[in-house]
Write a structure and sequence with these properties.
- Helices cover 14% and strands 37% of the residues.
- The chain has 113 residues and is mostly beta strands.
- Strand 1 and strand 2 form a beta hairpin.
- It is globular.
């Protein structure tokens, strides 16, 4: 493999891994996205259902959902009462801003173009 081919291959791999959908979620113990910060989570549809300690489920009362850019325009974060992202237990969704509510799990859904 020539240096040029290797460089092109590296650019393709880098671009593939840096253009995925992602949201940054900042979880808070208090309502209204204030009070004790519980730490961030960054992810997208490929992460699947997030629950338990990974989601700060049962601890967080609110979450700031922040888009990471244009890659998120067809996605949103869905919050569920259940701990398995059961669509029948959806309690809300956000693509930007503060979500207030006790949740058991969440997931990022790609809703298409």
């Amino acid at each position: 493999m020539t240096l040029r081919n290797l460089t092109v291959a590296c650019i393709i791999v880098f671009t593939t891994f840096t253009t995925t959908d992602a949201f940054k979620l900042s979880r808070y113990r208090g309502e209204g996205c204030r009070n004790e910060a519980l730490g961030p989570w960054v992810g997208g549809p490929d992460q699947g259902c997030i629950s338990g300690d990974d989601a700060a489920a049962g601890i967080a009362s609110s979450v700031i959902v922040a888009s990471t850019g244009d890659v998120d325009k067809n996605s949103y974060t869905v919050f569920f009462e259940s701990d398995d992202c059961n669509p029948e237990t959806e309690i809300g969704h956000k693509d930007e801003g503060c979500f207030t509510g006790r949740y058991g799990s969440y997931a990022v859904w790609d809703v298409g173009s």
